[in-house]
């Protein structure tokens, strides 16, 4: 239960990303600066934390051992996740992007066969390739239905191209984030804590953000003071607090892909938090009844997905004890 609660707390802080990115877009800020500035600001925050904990040397040594893998999977997990999310903010409201983002639950489940998990057998713990959790995936279809309902509602007010440009980047991000996160978990093998892992991935993804910032400088000029301040808030709330909480929750269930999918399912709460934030901060009109129904389905899907995952884990443990 604790990993799920931690996951929901991370969803609250993650929701600031969608609200503030939309605010920056409506204020005329470039999505490129919204994306890159967040990671630039994350570095000093995380460096201070890791240095105070006395763990910086261990992180540097671990990164040095497998530099290419750190660069690759940090690019996937952070770069190909956040840049598309910021790009989508130029075309759809933040709460709608947050809702569409929940397709990552399905994406994460589809990635299970690409990883191995620890399974208790009569010969002890063994590493076996994971199988797609079809029961949990069927519950995730409820979430997908909620996303469809929300997008249908917006289709009447947004152009087809705006809907497409708001959905496709989020779809890319929905696969990139769990893929990069899980690959880094495998790479670290439990040697690093959540703070070290987030700092390491942030540092390893900096080449991508520097290139993106250079493009932004020549295309749109330097960021405004307001966007810089707002990006710092995103870096602290979402980039540091939320990411560390989420990675901590996934570390608690490391090696169990079904439970890992349940933790990822908690991120569905982002849509509710984001909607409340935009109504309060941006004075947006209340979403329609159809959109609220879509949000409700997403939340219900999250609960069902977590329940099915817990039942499966309990059944697996009982079989292992019998053996």
Automatic annotation (TrEMBL):
The chain crosses the membrane at residues 31-50, 70-90, 96-115, 136-152, 158-177, 198-219, 231-249, 261-283, 289-308. Keywords: Membrane, Transmembrane, Transmembrane helix. The keyword Nucleus does not apply. This is Multidrug resistance efflux transporter family protein. It comes from Fictibacillus marinisediminis.
């Amino acid at each position: 239960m604790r990993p799920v609660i931690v996951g929901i707390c991370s969803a609250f802080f993650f929701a600031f990303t969608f609200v503030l990115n939309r605010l920056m877009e409506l204020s005329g800020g470039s999505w490129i600066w919204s994306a890159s500035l967040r990671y630039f600001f994350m570095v000093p925050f995380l460096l201070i934390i890791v240095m105070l904990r006395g763990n910086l040397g261990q992180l540097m040594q671990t990164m040095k051992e497998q530099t290419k893998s750190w660069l690759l999977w940090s690019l996937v997990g952070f770069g190909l996740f956040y840049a598309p999310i910021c790009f989508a903010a130029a075309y759809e409201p933040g709460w709608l992007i947050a809702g569409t983002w929940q397709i990552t639950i399905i994406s994460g489940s589809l990635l299970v066969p690409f990883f191995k998990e620890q399974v208790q057998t009569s010969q002890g713990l063994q590493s076996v390739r994971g199988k797609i959790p079809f029961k949990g995936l069927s519950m995730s279809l409820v979430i997908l239905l909620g996303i469809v309902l929300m997008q249908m509602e917006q289709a009447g007010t947004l152009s087809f191209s705006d809907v497409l440009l708001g959905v496709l980047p989020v779809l890319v991000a929905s696969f990139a984030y769990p893929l990069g996160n899980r690959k880094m978990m495998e790479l670290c093998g439990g040697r690093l804590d959540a703070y070290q892992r987030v700092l390491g991935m942030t540092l390893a993804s900096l080449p991508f953000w520097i290139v993106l910032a250079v493009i932004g400088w020549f295309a749109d000029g330097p960021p405004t003071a307001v966007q810089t301040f707002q990006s710092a808030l995103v870096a602290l709330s979402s980039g540091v607090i939320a990411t560390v909480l989420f990675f901590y929750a996934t570390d608690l269930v490391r090696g169990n892909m079904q439970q890992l999918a349940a933790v990822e399912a908690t991120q569905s709460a982002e849509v509710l938090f984001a909607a409340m934030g935009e109504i309060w901060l941006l004075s947006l009109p209340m979403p329609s009844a159809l959109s609220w129904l879509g949000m409700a389905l997403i939340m219900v899907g999250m609960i069902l997905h977590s329940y099915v995952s817990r039942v499966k884990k309990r059944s697996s443990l009982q079989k292992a004890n019998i053996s």
